[in-house]
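Take a careful look at the sequence and tokenised backbone pasted below. I need to know what the token row says about the fold.
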Amino acid sequence: MTDLVTRGAPPAAGPLRRAAPALLGYAAVRVLGLLVLALWSAGRGKSAYTLLTARWDALWYARVAERGYGYEVRLPNGDVHSNLAFFPLLPWLERELHAVFPLSYADAGFVVSLLASLAAAWGIFAVADHVYGRRAGVCAVLLWAVLPVGIVQSMAYSESLFTALAAWALYAVLTGRWVTAGLLASLCGLTRPVGLAVVAGVWAAGVAAFARDRETGVRQAWRRVLGLLLAPLGAAGYVLWVGHRTGGGPLGYLDVQAGWRNGFDGGYAFARFVADKFTSFPGALAGLGLIVGVGLVVWLYVVCVRQGQPLPLLVYAGVVTGLALCASSYFGSKPRLLLPGFPLLLPLALALSRLRTPRSALVLGSVAVASAVYGALWLNGSGPP
């Protein structure tokens, strides 16, 4: 037993066998989404594969993999879009796959995304199974799969890779594997800026564990300290390297993000964006929908707190949510930025797990179809970023 274990050890069945229903269900939802996207795109004369691998951020990651950092685009309004805004782990993996297998950089990104999405599903299952049991774990994975922007999990983007690393880092914390948690948190920090959320979760759990258990053995204490020290190294290393390369010092990365009009303003820009929707009748409906969506996210977090989720999950989900809603980035990307916040789904997963199997299957199946259709419409329309 460790100081963060909340349930007894799972049955003797192997971890993969225990997670198999969740992984098979997840794969089925993703296949449905890709099939609907392929049919919809073909009907519009577009390539579904191009939409998944060679547009928006996927192009930037592939360029980093192929040519390294240093590329930038200067817009007529003076903004500078630099590829230094994109963290390096995904392009590093694309480059390695390209070197080993006969894959283009775009193909490599797609393969990484597919494998990482399965690893993410397994990690989400492991966390939910540990906290609430196997049935809730399966429901949590399927809920993550059927999110409206779930198609991003199959794109050559970094969301699936980040979620996989984050989920397993949090599972490592929950099971007392501090060095593993620190290493995975460091990799999260090399994947996306929101790696800060994983670091915060690991540190919050570590500090709480020290405060609660002052008689921990020397070996366990040092492993915990080592995990806490490792956790921020990835993000800190990349941010400092960008600052050195740009000459902007420790805040150089913020200057790079400012060139993309990304920043943290406490939600002011997003609030103005929503308020502007109410200047016309069709826009008012969209504005109302945004308010309902934000309210749902906040409500889910409150339920997570009331249900007593473990501290690292609460801190992680809170930081992910705060960064997504309070950043001044492109507003259409906010649902995608919330994609790694899977602990928010655990209250819904727990509720679904209490339903009879036919009823929960009907609910999830219906939502999966709607999600697949929405994903196809979205990618063939405005789509990411």
User: Anything to note?
Assistant: The beta strands are 72-74, 80-82. The longest strand covers residues 72-74. The first helix runs from residue 15 to 43. The two ends are 43 Å apart (CA to CA).
